[in-house]
Structures are given as structure tokens and as C-alpha cells.
Specification:
The chain is an alpha/beta fold. The protein is built from ten helices and eleven strands. The protein has two domains: 71 residues, Ubiquitin-like (UB roll), CATH 3.10.20.310; 160 residues, no CATH class.
Length: 303
Amino acid sequence: MPESKSKEPEEGKLQSLLKRVPGGALIFAVIPLAAISYFAWFHYGAEHLDQALYSLDANKLRITEQPDWIRQDLAKSVYESHQLNRVSLLDPQSSSAIAQAFDSSPWIKSTTRVTKEQGGTVQVDLVYRRPVAMVFVEYEDNQSGAPKKATGFYLIDEETIVLPGWNYTEEDYKNYLVIASNPPLDVSTVGDGKEFGSPAVSVAANLCSLLVEHRERYKLATVRVDKDFSTPGTSPWLLTVFTSDGRRIIWGRPPGNELHGEPEVSEKLTRIRQWLEQDASMSTAQNELDLRGFASSTVSSTR
């Protein structure tokens, strides 16, 4: 008979050998089980142990001191919403994952650095978005049955990014410049963390960013945006600033879009300061300032 048929297969030889050895059958059964256990540990057990020992601890997460206008615990909020407890600090990509989690918050303009420190502490350096105004809107309220007009406010930064929150009180919006638009604004696509998406709001926010540091001192309250097509080929927006004590400042075209002969921003700010710092009796009598020309301030007794 051919030699190939007289030889047992190698596996058969191994089995025959193990049967002659005390406990050999048990060893033969244990070897595959051990191999399976090893690979299971390699792929799953080590990962869970790694997470248990080296995962990011919420109590060891440090961020740049958040400003007063953010009313939530931002570190806790981001940690929980992005499940940062599953991030292993041994992972080379962990710093990137932490940065991406914070970058997704509407309150964060940028994450500049993530630093791992001894003891599992992680320091995250952040640049926060700064509110410059609240946008006044009117909308249809259908929640109570019959549609009705309702009003509300969106908090935005200088880039018109909508910041979290909606149910602001009167005390809240007294702390910010308010943007009002004519015609009314479309808010159908407005959402937290997105640009407001309105050219009118963009030009008003630009002005608000210039006025915000003077808001409280000069009682600046509202920036109104009107469409004005009286001068073809220029920006269609006309900006007017109102103070909380009833005075009106006609700013003119948006900063950077001034008409020929219209003062630039620095000149307008100087004229506002001089006008608002007049003595009390004169300020009461003169309640309108027109900044669109170099001539002496246009004063009117009507609003």
C-alpha cells in the first residue's frame, strides 16, 4: 500500500499521544480554551482595564476660568454629553478627542491647548465666545392652539453665533445691547451654535461690538437696523442707536460701508462721547444726534 496511507495524520498522532499521557485529554481541551481566553483578554479585557485605570476623571478636568455670562458648569456639561469618561489618557488621540468635545460647545470659540499633567489631571485652555447683543424677534406661537404673535431674544456674539438660552428675562436683556430689525427677522433656521444667518443682524452685531464697552456708561440700549435704498449702489442698511433715557443717535451706514463724506468709526465714536457727556440740562434738550455728516451735530427736539 502507498506510504501516505500507512501514516496517521499529524493531528491523529497528537491525539493518540495525549491519550497515553495521564490527563492528556484534559490538556488537549484546555489548550484551545486558553488560546481563546488570551485573544479575548487581548481585545476586550485589556481595554476595559485600561479605561478603569486611565480614563479621564471628571474631578480632574480643569478648564480656563469661565466668564460670568456662562451660567452652566461647562466642564461638567461637555464631559457628560461627550462621554469623556470613555477617553483613555494613554490613547495618543485623547488630547484631540477632548479638544473636539469642547470645540463643539456654542460657548467655545476655540480650544487652544490640552495638557496632560501628573496624577491624571487634564488642563484645557479655552477661548470663550463673548455676547455682544440680544436679537429681538417676533414669531408665531402655536403651542397654545390658535396662532399668536410672540416675542423673544437670541443672545449672539460678534460673529452672530447664537449662544445657548432663550427664556431671558427683562433683567437679562438690560445687560446687553438689543438688536431690532425692520423688516422683522426670519428665525426658522436659527439654532444654538449656528450663525444667525441675517445680513441685518451681521451689520448690527459689528456695530454692537464697537459699542459694547460704552454701553453701560452712556446708557446705550438698542441698535435698530432699517432698510434704506435711497442711495443706490451702497449698503442698504441704516443703523440707529437708542439710549435707555430716550435719546436717538443716527449712526448711518454700517462700519466700513460709509457713504462719501460720511465720518469713519473713530470720528463717530468721538462725537457720541462728546454729545453724551454734555451737561445734563443740554442733554435733555437735545435728544437726537445725526452722525452722517462732518457738520455740527444735527439736533432735533422730536424723536
